[in-house]
Design a protein that fits this description.
By secondary structure, this protein is α/β, with parallel strands linked by helices. The protein contains seven helices and five strands; from the N terminus they run ααββαβααβαβα.
Length: about 170
């Protein structure tokens, strides 16, 4: 685990469920060696601008889940196989892929969508870094909503508001 503020990285495990506090995770202050030593890299930050700029850090071709969308410099994006969930959503708001589009003036570096991968229309190459940027992937919101619902239900604190949804028949 890496955080620009090392004290945050060291403190984070205390907030995790007990079952996840044991290794194999560790904290580091060395971004380069962390990325180079990982087959799976997950960016879940609040970065407003790219802070990972050296494409050579990805020469071992990891899978990159770019959840926070603004961590990678265009040079990294342009050397990678880029998969997005929604092209129009992802290429706006100064995301890393949007900055890459602005730099080169086209979208040809977008290799495909999650749908393409799931349906077999696109098979990500083994010899390139694969970056998945999920700007509009609502399933993450659904997973969090379900987690909150289950916690509140288990606590006995669930409050049902009758009539909140004025019609539910057409939604199943």
């Amino acid at each position: 685990m890496f955080d620009l503020a090392a004290e945050h990285a060291r403190a984070s495990p205390a907030t995790w469920p007990a079952r996840t506090r044991t290794p194999p995770w560790s904290c580091t202050t060395a971004r380069r060696s962390l990325i180079r030593g990982s087959d799976l890299v997950v960016f879940a930050t609040v970065a407003g601008a790219p802070h990972i700029e050296d494409p050579s850090w990805f020469d071992h071709h990891p899978l990159v889940l770019h959840v926070s969308l603004r961590d990678l410099a265009p040079a990294v994006v342009l050397r990678s196989c880029n998969i997005v969930d929604d092209v129009e959503h992802c290429l706006k708001a100064d995301t890393s892929v949007h900055l890459a589009e602005q730099q080169v003036g086209n979208r040809e570096f977008i290799d495909g969508t999650l749908h393409d991968v799931l349906t077999g229309a696109l098979r990500p190459p083994a010899g390139r870094t694969v970056v998945f940027s999920p700007f509009g992937l609502g399933v993450l919101d659904l997973a969090l909503g379900r987690h909150v619902y289950e916690r509140v239900l288990a606590s006995g604190e669930l409050a049902v508001v009758d009539g909140f949804f004025h019609e539910t028949r057409r939604y199943g």
